[in-house]
Amino acid sequence: MTVVPTPQTAASDAAVSHLASASPPRTGLYTPEERKRRDETKWTLVQGILAPVQFLVMGVSVFLVLRYLKTGQGLEAAHLSIVVKTLVLYTIMVTGAIWEKVVFGQYLFHESFFWEDVVSFFVIGQHTAYLIGLYLEWEPRFLMGMALVAYGAYTVNAIQFILKLRAARLQEAAEKAARAAEVQAA
Q1: What residues make up the domain containing 156?
Q2: How far apart are CA 154 and CA 97, in angstroms?
Q3: CB 123 within 8 A of CB 54
Q4: Which of 37, 68, 84, 107 suits a disulfide with 97, CB 3.0-4.6 Å?
Q5: CA R_g for the chain
Q6: What is the pLDDT of residue 20?
Q7: Pairwise CA distance, residues 65 & 105, whole Å
């Protein structure tokens, strides 16, 4: 079968070709413009502060949850710690979406952080399910188990982001070395 282009398909193909040539394929986590926006926005600092705060809150909460599961004491403290952890998670997700908009031009699911965002939504879903269960007065030990599963998923998500930060640093170091080599060669 032979396909003969019509004026409409030829114009459409030309538009698509122009779009493809306007955006070169991404070779790393950030383009130079995105890196500049990342380095200049206050939201990078906000994320840099909230991430370890969230991890610390989770550590305290894990201790309180495990204490309750072992001794049966401290249920209110365990619940409170999980609620605080969830609120910190919501805060970092909102500020992270703002950061992604400033750096990449879209609020979530940019190709550079797509899978991290997917897992983040799974983590948020688990934490939100805990809050719903708390409101509906589900059995406390079940709720504690839900929280621990949510914390496990959050830990996987945190590792994703740490690995992404490492990849960004390695990309920047490689680009710096390449520029230095170009200067020496010239």
Answers
A1: 31-161
A2: 17
A3: no
A4: 107
A5: 23
A6: 39
A7: 39
| pTM attached to this predicted model | 0.76
Helices (H) and strands (E) in the chain, counts: 6, 0
Q: Rounded distance, CA 44 to CA 51, Å?
A: 11
Q: How many domains does the chain have?
A: 1
pLDDT exceeds cutoff 80 at 11: no
d(CA 104, CA 98): 10
Q: What tokens appear for 113 in the block?
A: 């952080």
What is the SS3 string spanning 110-132? CHHHHHHHHHHHHHHHHHHHHHH
User: Does residue 74 lie in a domain region?
Assistant: yes
> Is residue 146 situated within a structural domain?
yes
Contact call for residues 103 and 41 (beta carbons, < 8 A): yes
Q: Does residue 128 carry a pLDDT above 60?
A: yes
Q: Which of 2, 128, 151, 126 is nearest to 64 (CA)?
A: 151
Both tokens assigned to 97: 């979406």
Cβ pair 101, 117 in contact under 8 A: no
